[in-house]
Amino acid sequence: MSKKRRGKKKLTAAQKRAKRERRENTQIIFLNGKQKRVPREKRIEGLPEYEYLARTADPVWLMENGYYELLYQREQMENPRDDLPASNPAPVQPPSSPAFRLESIQELTRRLMRAAVGPGDRVLDGTVGNGHDTFFLAHCVGPRGKVVGFDVQLDALAETEGLLNLQGLSEQVSLVHDSHEWLGLWLDTHWPGQKLAGAMFNLGYRPRGDHAIMTRPQSTLAALEQVINYLRPGGLLTVALYTGHEGGAEEAAAVLDFMRGLPPNLGQVVWHQFLNRENPPSLVAFCKK
Ligand code: SAM
Questions:
Q1: Looking at the predicted structure, is the pLDDT value of residue 83 above 50?
Q2: Is 263 left (phi over 0), alpha (psi -120 to 50) or beta?
Q3: What residues line ligand 1, using a CB cutoff of 6 Å?
Q4: What secondary structure does DSSP assign to 105-157, as a single string?
Q5: pTM
Q6: Is 51 a residue whose pLDDT tops 70?
Q7: By three-state DSSP, how is residue 10 classified?
Q8: In this structure, which CATH number among 3.90.1150.200, 3.40.50.150, 2.60.120.380, 3.40.50.1100 belongs to the domain 104-288?
Q9: Which has the closest alpha carbon to 126: 226, 251, 259?
């Protein structure tokens, strides 16, 4: 009996439409040597969606929608730091990129902080600057929590205050126009007997501000020595260190010396740094026992 050659099955109109939509909305990529169909990267005006948002979206909208990394990358594009290699600017990465990559110092800091801090906690931002970390902390602690942020630049605080107001977050945040070396005095006066779940310090200068105003080893160390006493057990201190600007390497070395010298029975200390970059920023974190 001769085998009848089976003709291609005719698709219905609905099946054809579904096939076309699948082709339009997905793409094939190679992952670990295998073909995988993944959602097609959305593009707006020729740019990948995330790059488009990083370049154009309103900063308040980015914050409200939790795109902290995009906000940071936008700032990097507009005001590249001297200590990041200009030839290799940080690429704009969609948060759920299928290709694995090691997280940035900022991302790691936030992941650790999110794990240590929860709704209703009290936390401290030692260097408010453009307010990204203050916003992040305000979101972590929620409306029942409290954030105190220090900065010596009034315009940085005023800008941050304006954005906090816009988002209805100002109730839970106190901004202090003073050096962080006085944080103990502030905490004893305003939050007597209260412990901190987390404290963030992002050293150096404010990217969108006066680059001559920067953190200095003496006041930084005074602040770090104090803040450790206010952390609760399990409380987390993170310090982002930059070495590309004048005085940055000395400050980073002083902080690392201090952190290395902390007795192990007081807490754990880790240091995280990309090794194959020029002047890489690094993160040193302390978790209180
Ligand atoms: N965390 C900030 C953010 O999310 O945008 C970035 C901070 S920026 C790298 C460093 C900030 O530290 C600057 O705004 C600078 O004015 C501030 N600063 C410098 N010396 C300080 C001090 N002694 N006390 C408090 N803030 C200080």
A1: no
A2: beta
A3: 127, 129-133, 150-153, 156, 179-180, 202, 204-206, 209, 213-215, 219
A4: HHHHHHHHHHHH--TT-EEEES--TTSHHHHHHHHHH-TTSEEEEEES-HHHH
A5: 0.75
A6: yes
A7: coil
A8: 3.40.50.150
A9: 226
